[in-house]
Write a structure and sequence with these properties.
75 residues, alpha+beta, Methyltransferase, Cobalt-precorrin-4 Transmethylase, Domain 2, 33% helix, 4pyrrole_Mease_sub2, porphyrin biosynthesis, transferase, Siro_Cobalamin_biosynth, methyltransferase
Length: 75
């Protein structure tokens, strides 16, 4: 569900005032050896997830907490 609703979710959040530079991450197959993550600002997350070819199950996390990760790139 996270991946299928991501494009609409991201757009609605920004339309309702979420800054486009808000940190976000998509975590595919979390806690498994196959885990993959895509870090991005919310404005670019949909494209970055497509480029990485992530599949379900994928957890989407949006907000300042994402920037606390040591894996968060400094944009």
């Amino acid at each position: 569900m996270g991946l299928s609703t991501l494009p609409a979710l991201a757009q609605k959040l920004m339309n309702h005032g979420l800054p486009s530079g808000t940190p976000a991450v998509a975590v595919e197959r979390g806690t498994t050896p196959q885990q993959r993550t895509v870090f991005s600002e919310i404005k670019d997350l949909v494209n970055e997830v497509k480029l990485a070819d992530l599949v379900s199950p994928t957890l989407i996390i949006i907000g300042k907490v994402v920037a606390l990760s040591p894996l968060w790139p400094q944009f």
